[in-house]
Amino acid sequence: DLLKRGWASYEAGNYAEAEPLFREALAIDEKALGPEHPDLATSLNNLAELLQATGRTAEAEPLYRRALSIREQALGPEHPLVAGSLTNLAGLLQATGRTAEAELLDRRSLAALLGVNAAYKLRIASMASGGVDSIALPPLRPPSEQLTLERYPSLECKKQVAVGEEFSVVFSLTEVQRTAVALIEQGQATPEGQLVLSLPAEADRWEIDVVLLADGFTVLGSDSSRITLPRQGDSEAVLFRLRAEPIGAEAERRKVAVTLWHKGAYLARIAREVSVVDQPLAAGAPAPIATLADLPQAGKQQRPPAPVALDLGLEAPDLTLWVQHRTGPDARERVTLMLMSQYLFPPLTHQFDLPADARAWLERYYGELSRRGRGVALVTEGAGADAPNSERGVDENVAFARGFGRELYRRFAPEPFKQAFWKLKDALGSDFDSIQIMSNDPTLVWELMRPARGEDEGEFLAVDFRVARWYIGEDSALLMRPPQILPFKELIVIAPRYSERELPYAAKELEELRQVPGFSPWGGRLASVRQLLMQGGAVTGFIHFAGHGTVRAVDAGLNEYAIELEDQSVDLMTWRGLVGDGGDAHPFYFFNACDVGQIHHVANFVEGWAPAVLEAGASGYVGGLWPLADRGAAEFAARFYHTLAAGLAQGLVTVADVLRETRRYFYANGDPTFLGYVYYGDPNLKLAMQPAPGGGAVSAPH
After folding, report:
1. Model confidence over 10-24: pLDDT tens digits?
2. Whether this model's pTM surpasses 0.70
C-alpha cells in the first residue's frame, strides 16, 4: 500500500509527498527481509529513481549500486533484474558525464539479458581489450524440448469510464478464470478460453514481457512490465494506469490490449473493450468492474482457436517492430510502434501521427521508381556494354533510389527506432542481422530506409538485413508466428496466356523457372486455379503467379484488387471463396504481378493480397509494392529461384538471404524493380529440399 501511494504521488509529480512513503517502505522491507534480500533491491531502486528525478544524483548513486550488488549476489549475473539495475546505474552515469563507465554497464546489461550465449551475439570479448581470442566461448544450447501450459488471461479494469478519468488495468495469467471478457485476439486458445503456450521444458518459470496498447488513452507511467510465469500456479499481476482521452460523441467503445513476448519473440495479444462516456459518472455509482458474470454462453465462443501453437524454441529476430495504424475520429492516422529485442529491456513504445502528406509523398516516389523501372536499359549478360546510356542510367537510378532511402529514413523513421537500431548496431556489429516488422499496413516502407548517423550510413535495410513483415490482422486462420523451417518439394507456376495485353517477358520467366527442381506448370483459367486453391493446403513449397494484377478505385477511398486469369479477373472476395480449408503444408506464395503487393484501407479494414493469403494459412508471401516492370519482374523471379535452387542443393537456405542477394543486383542493373518486392514471413525462415514422390504431390492441369 505504501508503494502504491508512493508511485501514485510520484507519477503525479508530487515528489515531496512520494519520498517519505518510499523511505518508509524501504525501512520496513529492510527490517522484515534483511539487508541482502533481492526484494529489497526494488525499494532501493524506487527511492534512487525519485532522488535522481529531483536532481540528487549523489544520493541516488549508492542506492543504485547497492541494489545492483544485492541482485548480482542473489540472482547471479545473468538475470533480467540484474540487467535492469545495470541500465539504471548506466543512465545515471551517462547523465553525470561518465560515459565510458556507462557504456561498459550497458554492455554488461545486454550480456545479462542474453545469458550463456551472450558471447556469440554481442561479441563482448571483442569489446574488451584482450580481443575475442582471450575468452573461451561456451557451447551453444541445443534446441530444447517443449512443455505446453494453459492459463487464463486476466485483463481487469472498469467496463465504463468518463473522459479524463484515471483508472487501473491489471493483467495476469491464472489457472482459475477471473474475468471472461479478455479476448485472445492472437494466440492459440482452448474452447474454454485458456491461452496455450509452448515453453522450454527444462525451466520451472519463464519471463514474459507485457506491453500495453491503449489507443485513445493516456498511459500514466510505464506501458511495459515483466511477469514470471511458474510451471504451476499463477503469474504475478502487473498494474498499468490509464486516463481516458476526449471523444467525438456522447459515448465511444475503445479497446485496451496487452501483447505478450518472450525473449523478443511475439506470443499473443489479449484485449477487452472499455466504454468511454463524455460526462462524469453519477456520484456514488462507480463504473462496474468486469467479473465472471460476463462469461460468454456455451456455444457462443467469440473466436475459434488459432490452428498453430506457439513455439518458443524458435530463433527470435534481433529486432521486432510492431507497427499498428489506426485512423482516429479526427481523421488523423495514428501509428503505435513497439520495439522488442532480447537485447533491449524494457521494450520501447511510441505513438505518433503519420504526416498528412505521407501517403501522397510515398505514392509520388513509388510512381517515379516504377517509371524508372520500366524505362531502364537493363545491363544483362552480353548486352551491358552495348546498351545505350546504360552506365549513366544505372548510376542515375542507383543515386535516385539511395537518395529516396535516405530521405525516407530522415522523414519517417521515429526517434525510438533510430535509437534502438544504432544501440543494437553498436553492440552486435555484423551479428545484428534480422528484423521482423509486424504491421497491419505497409505505408512506412521500412525495407527501403537507409539508416544514417553522422558519417555512418548504411544501405537499404532489406539489403543489409534479413527483413520480413508479418500481418497483424484479426483473422484466426492467420498463423500466429510464421514458421522457420519448411520443406520445399514443388514450385507450382500459374502463368496465364493472355489473348490481349500479353506480357512479353512472361514466357522467358516461365522458361527460366522450368530449371528449378520441383517445377510444375499450372493452367491459367479459373477452373484450374480453383482446383489448386481448394487443395492449396497440400502444396509443399511455392505457388508462383506470373501475370497481371490490378488495383482499381471503385468508390471514394475504396479499391478493388484483382489478379487477371485467362478467362476472367479474380478479386479478393472471389479468391477467398475459392480457397479451401487448408491443411498442414502452408504453401508460400510469390505474386509476380503489377500492384498486388500494395495494401490500402478499405472501409477501415486492411485489404490486399498479402493479408488475404496469410489469413488463408500461407507460410509466407512475396509481392510488389508498386507496378512492376515486366522485364525486371521476370529477371527478378529468375534470379530469385536460381539462387534459391543453388542454396537448396547445398542444404538449408534462408529465404530472406535469397531475397537480399537478389536485391543486390539492383546496383549492377539499376532497375528499381529489384527493390520493389515486400516479403511477409519470418526473417529466419529456412527451406530444405524434399524430393517429390513419383507423380508429385498434386495433380497439375495444363
Report:
1. 767 788 888 998 898
2. no
